[in-house]
Amino acid sequence: MGLVVQKYGGSSVSDAAAVKRVAQRIVDTKNAGHEVVVVVSAMGDTTDELIDLAQEVSPTPSARELDMLLTAGERISMAVLAMAISDLGHEARSFTGSQAGVITDSAHGKARIIDVTPGRIRTALDGDAIAIVAGFQGVSQDSKDVTTLGRGGSDTTAVALAAALDADVCEIYTDVDGIFTADPRIVPAARRLPRISYEETLEMAACGAKILHLRCVEYARRYGIPIHVRSSFSTLDGTWVIDQNKGSDQTDMEQPIISGVAHDRSEAKITVVGVPDKVGEAAAIFRAVAEAGVNIDMIVQNVSAADTNRTDISFTLPAKDGRAAMDALTAMQAQVGFETLRYDDGVGKVSLIGAGMRSHPGISAKFFSSLADAGVNIEMISTSEIRISVVVRADDVDTAVGAVHRAFDLDVTEVEAVVYGGTGR
Amino acid sequence: MGLVVQKYGGSSVSDAAAVKRVAQRIVDTKNAGHEVVVVVSAMGDTTDELIDLAQEVSPTPSARELDMLLTAGERISMAVLAMAISDLGHEARSFTGSQAGVITDSAHGKARIIDVTPGRIRTALDGDAIAIVAGFQGVSQDSKDVTTLGRGGSDTTAVALAAALDADVCEIYTDVDGIFTADPRIVPAARRLPRISYEETLEMAACGAKILHLRCVEYARRYGIPIHVRSSFSTLDGTWVIDQNKGSDQTDMEQPIISGVAHDRSEAKITVVGVPDKVGEAAAIFRAVAEAGVNIDMIVQNVSAADTNRTDISFTLPAKDGRAAMDALTAMQAQVGFETLRYDDGVGKVSLIGAGMRSHPGISAKFFSSLADAGVNIEMISTSEIRISVVVRADDVDTAVGAVHRAFDLDVTEVEAVVYGGTGR
């Protein structure tokens, strides 16, 4: 018996029938003796439809007003979800981000949570009610304006509320059974991870895995909130995202060396060709890109050719920011004196993630061998303490992911396949 | 130069193009040197669509949650309207009912305004911004829950804000040119009233005229707010609803005797046949109807027949409440001892309204003669100081309205017809 925060995304509440199904699930949790706080996103495609409406009216809508508009989406879903729960005989009360005490800064469209003061939620729980909270939104501390948290916002709302209410668990409901060792659409033999550390989850999210957003996992790690990622279509256990260094019984099973293989096709590569090999040239290039508001990912600088004293610098960035970065670099060509720019959006990134890498040598060697054996050419490499990433041709991504997954014995066994069968993965 | 509150209904902001047109009109008012506060309803059919969604999820949705749901509609319209105004080069800031300081009681779905504390609106105006306020909604004083004001709510919001801000005028925009002497769909020769008193407007609203809601006019009368009912499709003057007893230049033209002819087809008639003529029987009947939550309108009790000592009692009521009233009466038949009930929804009400009736004798005689000459049979009669209403067959309503309109010389003259031509009436 404890306090459970559940988060349901837009696909879990896409229409009236789905809302009723989710309501039943919430009531089941309540009937099991828990206090329940539910965070809900806007129904189905509502947010996209509202953005389309804004675009029809204004090519560059005011950020404050766009936030006001978009928050209508959660207002609709939370109200109908509360209605559906009432029909099942439990009191449910819906709360906007502001009413739930989600206090943010004033950065409309990408506000950060400053504080959570869930007094009204606590009162509702004390009155035996189920609290339904609008995800993705808050109210700014200074101007009391409605704000939105940006991408992954509802997950962050859920974890922030779980922390403020000292919840036992934050359950994130999705349309898959949990976090897998690879994307099951690419690797049918991918297996569900019963548990994974915050650090590995952060690396997977940063490397293109779509299940949890970075901010949400960072928040959970900071406050030690266990996240349970699970399917809204089954009652099976999903994946627990937890602190695996904690001295709890969670460490009594041997930690796997490798958690999984992530991939990302949303990046592009820019190569600045023939940069004069002088102090400060690279800094000038990356400052220009940063000033254009572009976050870069991997960077490779070749050794200078002895005869020309010039070098090439390659880096990856989100493909959507490609235009902005190229414009910024073109504008400084004369100043820096580089020869030309190359833009390549036919790349993909494949990453191997595992906390066990720290203590197991030979991981890199096996990783590169598996790619070589599969005939995949590596264009760039970057590593962290618990991750190796490579940039390859986009066409090679599927082959690379499958090869690496097999090489590290991540493929599901036949016994496990029976267990996982028919869970709607 | 002054403070103008403008209210636009759902049909004025039905889509992106309509929103942009309204934005231009608002900016024109601002550019003319006025401070502008805009109250807006939900776009087009949004409210009906949200009600349908609620019905899909729950047959009897919680009143609190239904209010939370419906207020999403104005949130959308006000945000996109603010965006459209920004694009025209003026700052616009949208405010929910709560942010605008519309404080209500806790009667969800039909909340009454208790207080208006428009501090944030005043601040926005002082900062040279246009304030956009969600109509139809407020926040409850006790529980800080979101409430809605019920039918006509946005008009009431506009008048209440106009009163709190000491506005010079409250402009109610609609799809006709103002208030007419009769419904132009029935009487093509109906003429626009340049001005009308609060009292007459209240009578017209109570008698079925659809332009302004009772609550809004009552509020305006109490605080002396001039209402200007006008078309959102033209810049012509509409109808000014004002206090015609005030010693201003508004009284320098002779006040017309008759303001107009209203009609209402939404009522039904119930006749309780053979009620024993004893003290307290009528009271018992009407108490039962009231306890069923039904408001009755006109009542007629016949003189008892001397041979039976029994009488018939007829009354009219909204046809939508017919079932509830019949059930309540049937349940008390044995107790009261009446003979039978007759239900008739084939009736209509025709009313003649004019403040000048007070001082001009002979109005009733002319009214009844005109109906008799047109061959219309009168079933019930009721009068007030400035109104005469009759119940006739529903099929006779058009004939009756036209005949009365002509008899009192309300038909537009040929010269006036040219003036009104082509205004999109």
TrEMBL record, chains A, B:
CC annotations in GO: cytosol
Keyword Methyltransferase: no
Domain ACT, chain residue ranges per copy: 270-346, 352-425
Catalytic activity: L-aspartate + ATP = 4-phospho-L-aspartate + ADP
Top-level enzyme category: transferase
Molecular function GO terms recorded: aspartate kinase activity; ATP binding
Binding site for substrate: 47, 74
Pathway involvement of the protein, from the record: Amino-acid biosynthesis; L-threonine biosynthesis; L-threonine from L-aspartate: step 1/5; Amino-acid biosynthesis; L-methionine biosynthesis via de novo pathway; L-homoserine from L-aspartate: step 1/3; Amino-acid biosynthesis; L-lysine biosynthesis via DAP pathway; (S)-tetrahydrodipicolinate from L-aspartate: step 1/4
EC number: 2.7.2.4
UniProt xrefs under CDD domains: AAK_AKii-LysC-BS (cd04261), ACT_AK-LysC-DapG-like_2 (cd04923), ACT_AKii-LysC-BS-like_1 (cd04913)
Protein keywords: Amino-acid biosynthesis, ATP-binding, Diaminopimelate biosynthesis, Kinase, Lysine biosynthesis, Nucleotide-binding, Transferase
Gene Ontology BP annotations: diaminopimelate biosynthetic process; homoserine biosynthetic process; lysine biosynthetic process via diaminopimelate; threonine biosynthetic process
InterPro entries given in the database record: AceGlu_kinase-like_sf (IPR036393), ACT-like_dom_sf (IPR045865), ACT_Aspartokinase (IPR054352), ACT_dom (IPR002912), AKii-LysC-BS (IPR041740), Asp/Glu/Uridylate_kinase (IPR001048), Asp_kin_monofn (IPR005260), Asp_kinase (IPR001341)
List of residues binding ATP: 7-10, 174-175, 185
Biological role stated in the UniProt entry: Catalyzes the phosphorylation of the beta-carboxyl group of aspartic acid with ATP to yield 4-phospho-L-aspartate, which is involved in the branched biosynthetic pathway leading to the biosynthesis of amino acids lysine, threonine, isoleucine and methionine.
Family, per entry: Belongs to the aspartokinase family.
Protein name as it appears in the record: Aspartokinase
Source organism per UniProt: Phytoactinopolyspora halophila
